[in-house]
Amino acid sequence: MSVVTRGPAEPVEVPPPRRAGSVRRTATTLMFWPDGFDAELHLKGRARDLLTPEHGDASVIAAAELFAVTGRARDVQRIEASPSTVGLDGLIGCRAGGNLRKAISEQLPHEVERGTPLHLLLDDLAGATLIAGYTFFKWADEFEGLRERLESSQTRDMRGICSGFRDGSSALRPDGSLLGVSENTPVAPSLADPGDPLSWHELDVPPRIAMRRARRIDLWHVGERVEFDTMFRDSCWTPAEREEVLHEYQILGSADRLSGELLTVTAVPRVLPYVECPGAAPHAARMAGTALPAMRREVLDCLRSTECCTHLNDGLRSLAEVPVLARSLAA
Length: 331
Prior knowledge:
- Helix content is 19%, strand content 28%.
- The chain has 331 residues and is of the alpha+beta class.
- An 8-stranded antiparallel sheet has the order 4-3-2-1-5-6-7-8.
């Protein structure tokens, strides 16, 4: 029988120091079940853009909060935002995934075009509702019958879905079903820098059973280029009251300051479930030459099947916001 081989397990220990003349976007989506695993999933998002000028104090230039409730079918049952915006009610009833992202574009084009913090939170509803169920595996022995239910659902043929589930992967049985859920979940370092109270927005205290998706996008000008350093992390809390990282990527690169064309991009796998997962990372370089505003669409078109990683794709897609944030910097 195959043996599940672990992937990388080196989460970023501390965010990089904020640079003078930079802007930082941070975003978090907290996933939790106040009425139990068989009830609705609640999602609470928060995002903030912080400008650190060459001289003077840093200031918040944009912020947003989002609250949503989804059902067992990942359908949006309730949604609220602060500041409020026109079009949110049009998302009620939509199932999280590609259909929801299409509805966001149709119902809230003003948020999409402006690349607002709220749009990033809305876009993350699809991925957050998809991965939230991983939390159940961490708590499987705490609730009667839960492990049996989870194991009975692991019979689908997963081959070809992504780099980690390529044919012959150590994560899969010969028939393509999942051999075992990854335990490659190192302890999560703090998102915030203890020496910098402005390094992240205010983080909510999570319920005992919860998962969190977190993002950081740093960018600054170097001559005619925009340089960026971004981070993407999924983490969950365990019965031992410990936060552990399931997925984490760091993405570094540069773009043309005037045209907004992506010049260079390097994906650094920090934490991934299986040893085959990092095989997607080199394919990120293929996105060079793409106009940044088109990244949300082009990444999904270009990186597919075993050349992709869902979490890498999500990290790359958020680079669409780089030109918006860059405009916040002084010329």
